[in-house]
Hints:
The protein has 151 residues and is mostly helical. The protein has helices spanning 5-41, 47-55, 57-89, 124-149. Helix 1 (5-41) runs antiparallel to helix 3, helix 1 (5-41) runs parallel beside helix 4 (124-149) and helix 3 (57-89) packs antiparallel against helix 4 (124-149). The longest helix has 37 residues, at 5-41.
Amino acid sequence: MNLHPSVTTVYDPQHALFGRLVRLCFSFAGCYWILIYALQWLSLIDHDQLRDFRSGQTMIYFILLSLWGIEYLRETRRLKLLIRRSEELDVRVSKVELNDLSPKTGSFAILHPVGPGSSAIAWVFPVLNVTGLAVALYLIAQRYIVAISAL
C-alpha cells in the first residue's frame, strides 16, 4: 500500500529499524542453538547443563514473540485507522496525510514518539519496544557468556 510521503517519512524508518532489530535478535537466539548442540556433540556439557542451557532460551523467545505480536496487532490497527480516515475524508488511502490522522499519530510510533508535543501515552509503546529489545539482547548475551564459560 502506498502511503502519503508525510506518513512514510515518519513511519518507514522506524518500521524498518524495528524489523531489523527483531530479526537480529531472533538470529542471535537461533544461532545459540548451534552452540548448544556443538557443546553437546563434543561432550563438553552433561545432561543437566544441557537442560539449563535450553530452558534459558524460553524467556528470550517469549519477549521477542510478544514484541513481534504486539507490533503486528498495532500494524493492523494502523491500517484500519488509515482506511477509516480515508473514508471519512473521501480520498484514497495514499492521500491521507499525517496531519489528517491527528490526534492518532501516536499509533505510528514504534521506537520513538511521533509528532511535536507527544503526550506521555505516546511514549508507552516506544519505551516497551526499546526496553524489550534491550532486555532480549542482554539475555542473549548472557546465555552466550554462560555457554562459552562452560568450556
